[in-house]
Specification:
single chain; 474 residues; alpha/beta; Rossmann fold; GMP Synthetase, Chain A, domain 3; 9-stranded mixed beta sheet; 24 strands; 28% helix; globular; binds methylmalonyl-coenzyme A; binds adenosine monophosphate
Length: 474
């Protein structure tokens, strides 16, 4: 794990302690407990982790990294369909969970992380830099989520670029309360402070009052949040005022609305640093701690990252700050592909090796990037979560009363977008359909709003025209 979490175990040990959802985790204890996990799981092809915001998740993930076993974080609220898919598709041999977790009784054998002894003996041999560290499941436009394989080298290089861009040092106290099954909360928010050597205060949930308390009592200096977190903070002047003590506020995972940026600046005195990334590419663009921050813009490429824009036909689009095109990204350590899906992996790259982000952007002559939308209406970002319309449609269609279903993201003041479903069905209520989806998929994937309609708009070929759905109901 020296390659990923620091030059030497001693350096990791000497960094500041972690506090996860109110529980202290000194680094020597983390290493002792993680090495016990490593001893238990060594040789497995992959292991799943019931990824609550807890000390046990951090111990389990670091144990996987120590053992060189790919870790599959399992969202703790994922419903049976999603969970079964992730466990089966990843081939996870074991499920690591805290003893008191409601981690279901299906799936592979359990390892109860908090019931293991505190030491596992010698560090196992280090795997190569190209070995898969994490398999992160993320939604595509259709079908079930895909497992994104991320190498140790990509994580290490990505974190080093961020440390440089944000002037992140062992003197920082990182604060956030994001979920520990995505890049933002887990890679940046847990592996980041371990690699840099800074302290971490995980607030359990990303609530404004918890961030305010950490800024005061814990000396929090560097704060991470998705735009929903920042707009909620900007709507809570007392909490926002406490953030004046911080060094840097970083926003990402979805567009930060310009009014939220401005209100945040007025109340906290900070112009937030915005950065852009994807599960597949990790973070590729960011404003710099020591440089300009521009509302509505996600900054400049990080070291080792190149970007360009293309039109739908693949022709280059000029970097004139005005003409939008699909953003293509090329990085030193490209992602290793989607597990078990070579065709999807091949389709996500151009023949000359650029990753197709599916995001529409402009690039200015000065290199500043602005994300203006997505190429497909079938990927929704709600509260910073990426949700595939197709997955929610399939869940709705599994209800016996549903004849047709179409799902789209519609604007939402707090969440950016909300999941909105348009359904043709008999003898079922909107509420029953929302509960039905919640029983199958993660909580945040359930529709906020269901419109029961007589028919869906279709084109001459019989295909649903998503852009006309809002004509049925906003
Ligand atoms: C939710 N609720 C509902 C419905 N949906 N109730 C009825 N019907 C529905 N359809 C419930 C919730 O269960 C919750 O209940 C309550 O309503 C409030 O939910 P919500 O508004 O969603 O608020 P929240 O639970 O406070 O969550 C907001 C959040 C969350 C904290 C911002 O969305 C979040 O943690 N987002 C972060 C996502 C993230 O980390 N993305 C990174 C991926 P109750 O209160 O009872 O629980 S992107 C990434 O990794 C890349 C690389 C990047 O760029 O960072
Ligand atoms: P995920 O794989 O869940 O990380 O989602 C990646 C997607 O989040 C990207 O393709 C973008 O659509 C969106 N995204 C991430 N960061 C930003 C940002 N700063 N501004 C706008 N969109 C963003």
């Amino acid at each position: 794990m020296r390659d990923l979490l620091g030059e030497a175990v001693e350096a990791v040990e000497s960094g500041g302690p972690l506090r996860i959802a109110g529980r202290e985790l000194p680094r020597d204890e983390l290493l002792a407990r993680a090495s016990a996990v490593a001893a238990e799981i060594g040789g497995a092809g992959a292991v799943a982790v019931h990824a609550t915001a807890s000390v046990e998740t951090v111990v389990a993930v670091v144990g996987g990294i120590m053992a060189g076993v790919p870790v599959v974080p399992l969202p703790p609220d994922s419903g049976p369909d999603e969970r079964a898919h992730i466990l089966t598709d990843s081939g996870a041999a074991l499920l690591l969970a805290p003893a008191d977790a409601d981690a279901g009784d299906d799936g592979p054998p359990r390892v109860l992380v908090d019931e293991l002894p505190q030491s596992g003996g010698a560090d196992p041999a280090e795997p190569g830099p190209d070995a898969t560290a994490l398999i992160l499941y993320t939604s595509g436009t259709t079908g079930a989520p895909k497992g994104v394989m991320i190498s140790r080298a990509a994580i290490a290089a990505g974190l080093d670029s961020l440390a440089e861009a944000w002037e992140w040092t062992p003197d920082d106290v990182l604060v956030h309360g994001l979920p520990l099954f995505h890049v933002h909360g887990l890679v940046l928010g847990v592996l980041g402070p371990l690699r840099v050597g800074s302290r971490l205060v995980h607030t359990g949930r990303p609530k404004p009052e918890a961030y305010a308390e950490a800024a005061g009592k814990d000396g929090g200096s560097l704060f991470f949040g998705v735009p929903t977190v920042w707009s909620r903070l900007a709507a809570d002047p007392a909490s926002a005022e406490a953030m004046r003590a911080a060094r840097l506020l970083v926003s990402g995972s979805a567009p930060l609305p310009v009014p939220a940026f401005e209100r945040l600046e007025a109340l906290t005195g900070h112009r937030p640093v915005e950065r852009y990334g994807m599960t597949e590419t990790l973070i590729t663009l960011s404003a710099r701690a020591g440089g300009e921050r521009r509302p509505g813009y996600v900054g400049l490429p990080l070291p080792g990252v190149e970007t360009r824009l293309v039109a739908e036909n693949g022709d280059p689009v000029p970097a004139d700050g005005e003409t939008p095109g699909e953003l293509l990204v090329r990085a030193r350590h490209p992602f290793k592909g989607y597990l078990n899906r070579p065709e999807a992996t091949a389709k996500s790259f151009t023949p000359d090796g650029w990753f197709r982000t599916g995001d529409i952007a402009t690039i200015g002559p000065d290199g500043w990037h602005r994300i203006v939308g997505r190429a497909s209406t079938d990927l929704i970002k709600s509260g910073g979560y990426r949700i595939g319309a197709g997955e929610v449609e399939n869940a709705l269609l599994a209800h016996p009363a549903v004849k047709e279903a179409a799902v789209a993201g519609t604007p939402h003041d707090d969440l950016g977008e909300q999941v909105t479903a348009y359904v043709v069905a008999d003898g079922v209520t909107e509420g029953q359909l929302i509960d039905f989806v919640a029983g199958r998929l993660s909580v945040h994937k359930r529709p906020r709003v269901v419109h029961l309609v007589g028919a869906l708009p279709r084109n001459a070929m019989g295909k649903i025209v998503k852009t006309r759905l809002t004509e049925l109901a906003p």
